[in-house]
Design brief:
With about 350 residues, the protein is α+β, with helices and mostly antiparallel strands. The protein has helices at about 35-40, 60-70, 85-105, 105-115, 130-160, 165-170, 190-195, 195-200, 220-225, 225-245, 255-280, 305-310, 315-320, 335-340, and strands at about 5-10, 20-30, 50-55, 75, 80, 125, 175-185, 205-215, 285-290, 290-305, 320-330. A hairpin with a 6-residue loop joins strand 1 (about 5-10) and strand 2 (about 20-30).
């Protein structure tokens, strides 16, 4: 299980030694990385920075988002907040509560993984108040993720329409990079025709549990469940259109694209925990009436063990392997805080 951290950084006036009321609340996705983030934030800051508190959680984006929503009224800029000592302690307590809640979901995620390996029965159980609540949470998360994915598609369209000069400039600004990779393909049909005996020799039969979960999603309007996402969507779409029309440069999308990544992480966690709770309620049943279908059956599949074939008959195998060097544009995975630091 991957564990991250939410950190609280305070400023200390070098001349007086007093701590200011400015507090930065950020996150890292890997445990133990908060001290490194402190060093990054210290660069260019005229005051000394102190790592005041760390909260450990498997869902740092989710915890940080909950804090930022509640502390929006005292936000100074980006992730910096003006907090008196009592307000700071309250914020830390809230972070610990949210982190505790995130850990409470882990047993459900783990149990869902175990249930995936169990054959389901023919029972369809009746919904409960609890399952209905999780269906609603899952549906809301799904609706928002669909919107986020639509915005990601718009962003990809903008990148695909960029000229070579614009791509070079974007790389210089570290907005995305061109990744080179090798696309390797094995001509199974050709190999089978020439070496049918070898194919038979390296066929492997394996019995696994085949599972398919199909939640029934309720319909929700983004404007009703998350007005801020509706406003953000309009702003993001407008900027994408303006960049495509060459009215503004690609860098104008930088901060909003980072915000898009942040929203995706928060909503992905919400969808994951909602799904896991529904799965545990479902148990060994085939589903929950009008809420979830989760059929798991034992299935035997026969496949070619390519790795074993290659290791034993490399010469014959490589006759039917083709490799092509390709490139793809990869967006830099930036946390929102990485953008704020340059403001």
């Amino acid at each position: 299980m991957k564990i991250g951290e939410v950190y609280f950084i305070r400023e200390q006036d070098r001349s007086t030694g007093k701590l200011t009321e400015n507090v930065k609340i950020g996150m890292v996705s890997k445990q133990g990385e908060s001290s490194n983030r402190l060093k990054q934030h210290q660069t260019g800051n005229p005051r000394d920075l102190i790592l005041h508190h760390i909260v450990v959680t498997p869902a740092p984006f989710w915890v940080e988002n909950g804090l930022h929503q509640r502390l929006d009224g005292v936000r100074v800029r980006a992730e910096w907040h003006k907090l008196e000592n009592k307000d700071l302690e309250d914020a830390i307590q809230l972070a610990e509560v949210l982190a505790g809640e995130s850990f409470e979901h882990i047993p459900f995620i783990e149990k869902q993984e175990r249930l995936k390996m169990c054959v389901s029965n023919d029972e369809i159980i009746e919904p409960t108040t609890e399952s209905t609540e999780w269906q609603i949470r899952l549906s809301k998360a799904k609706a928002q993720l669909d919107r986020v994915n639509n915005l990601k598609d718009k962003y990809k369209e903008v990148i695909s329409g960029m000229s070579e000069d614009e791509i070079e400039q974007a790389q210089q600004e570290d907005l995305f990079h061109i990744e080179h990779y090798t696309d390797t393909k094995f001509d199974l049909d050709g190999f089978t025709k020439k070496y049918p005996d070898l194919i038979e020799k390296f066929l492997v039969s394996e019995t696994k549990i085949k599972q398919r979960m199909t939640p029934k999603y309720l319909e929700f309007k983004i404007s009703e469940i998350n007005p801020s996402l509706e406003i953000f969507s309009q702003e993001f779409s407008t900027l994408c259109d303006r960049v495509s029309k060459k009215e503004i440069d690609f860098g104008s999308l930088r901060e909003l694209e980072s915000e898009l990544q942040f929203r995706e992480n928060v909503l992905t966690w919400e969808k994951e925990i909602s799904t896991s709770h529904l799965a545990v309620i479902c148990g060994l049943a085939n589903g929950i009436k009008d809420q979830l279908t989760w059929k798991r059956v034992e299935e035997t599949n026969t496949y070619l063990d390519k790795d074993l074939l290659e290791s034993n008959h490399a010469e014959q195998y490589n006759e039917f392997v083709t490799a092509e060097l390709k490139t793809r544009k990869k967006t830099r995975k930036r946390a929102r805080r990485a953008i704020s630091e340059g403001d």
